[in-house]
Amino acid sequence: MISLAGKRAVVTGAASGIGRATAELLAELGAAVVLADVDEAGGAEAEQTVIAAGGRAVFVRCDVSDAADCERVIATARDAFGGVDVLFNNAGIIRRSTVCGITEDDWDRVMAVNVKSIMLLSRRAIPLMRAAGGGSIINTGSGWGIKGGADAVSYCASKGAVVNMSRAMAIDHGPDNIRVNCVCPGDTATGMLVEEARQLGGSLEAFYEEAADRPLGRIGTPGDIARTVAFLASDAASFVSGAVIAVDGAGTA
Ligand code: NAI
Fold first, then answer.
1. What separation in Å is there between the alpha carbon of 174 and the centre of ligand 1?
2. Rounded Cα distance, 115 and 117, in Å
3. Which phi and psi angles does 129 have, rounded to 5°?
4. What residues are in contact with ligand 1 under a 6 Å CB criterion?
5. For a pLDDT cut of 70, what percent of the chain falls above it?
6. Residue 67 predicted with pLDDT over 80
7. Which strand (E) or helix (H) includes residue 144?
8. What is the pLDDT of residues 132-170, one digit of tens each?
9. pLDDT confidence tier of residue 252, bands split at 50, 70 and 90
10. pLDDT, tens only, 97-128
11. Are 184 and 146 in contact (CB under 8 A)?
């Protein structure tokens, strides 16, 4: 059984989906958690859920593409819990378009939320991890960051960047005992997938039906990803760094 007792974690995109499930699990395993999200209502609700279950949590309203917001998130972890041991860079957005149709604004927004955010948060968290003797950073990539996908060129580019920047960060910060890994979910039942289905003119049901033919016969749940992140956050993964881990039931990544 993994324990995260005594660890201080920051989770972005913690108001819903994968981030929320992960924040709840990390807290259940003993970590104190800062939940960061642009969605104030969802973030406050997630914070209350963790506290009601006996965990320690603080919600910070944050746009992860904004440098000052990111500084505030890490400062909150320092002031409320004394530091940061685990950083889960998970907030992300998707815009559907080919390279011919995408607007520059959409391109820049996807890059800022999915990629720049990791730099903004990590550069503040790493000095605290270094001071504490090490830490674990987990970045959320995507199966589409490895093999590409249709009609989402900015998203695929951003997630490819997340995959390779995770490897680069692992090399740079390994000497400080800071491990950096990238989790690449396949189709996972969250609000993002519902929105994707809507933009494609269908519903989540179509994803479930199509998944019946995949090796494990289903799409992922937020808990599937959360358990992988909890392992990577823990000391059980003390020699796992620079890894790109598909969590997709052998389905898409
Ligand atoms: P979700 O839409 O349920 O959650 C994303 C969260 O990020 C939301 O709470 C949203 O408010 C927050 N967020 C969006 N922009 C933000 C910003 N600028 N600042 C702070 N928070 C912001 O989606 P899901 O599926 O939980 O996504 C989590 C991560 O997993 C994303 O990086 C996504 O790209 C990745 N992913 C999801 C897959 C899926 O099938 N659901 C597949 C592969 C990767």
1. 27
2. 5
3. -65, -45
4. 12-13, 15-19, 37-39, 42, 62-65, 90-93, 113, 140, 142, 185, 187-188, 190-193
5. 99
6. yes
7. helix 144-147
8. 999 999 999 999 999 999 999 999 999 999 999 999 999
9. low
10. 999 999 999 999 999 999 999 999 999 999 99
11. yes
Each residue of 158-204: pLDDT tens digit? 999 999 999 999 999 999 999 999 999 999 999 998 888 887 788 88
CA atoms of 190 and 114, how far apart (whole Å): 17
The single residue of 155, 229, 245, 253 carrying the catalytic annotation is 155
**94 alpha-carbon distance from chain centroid:** 14
155 annotated active-site: yes
Residue 187 and residue 252 in contact, taking contact as beta carbons nearer than 8 Å: yes
Atom of ligand 1 nearest to the CA of 16: 9
Q: Which two tokens stand for residue 132?
A: 């504490």
Residue 205, φ and ψ in degrees, nearest 5: -55, -40
Q: Give me ligand 1 centre to Cα 23, in Å.
A: 13
Residue 19 Cα: closest atom of ligand 1:
26
Specify the amino acid at residue 177.
N
Q: Which residues contact 123 (CB under 8 A, 6 or more apart)?
A: none
Q: Give the closest residue (by CA) to ligand 1 atom 3.
A: 17
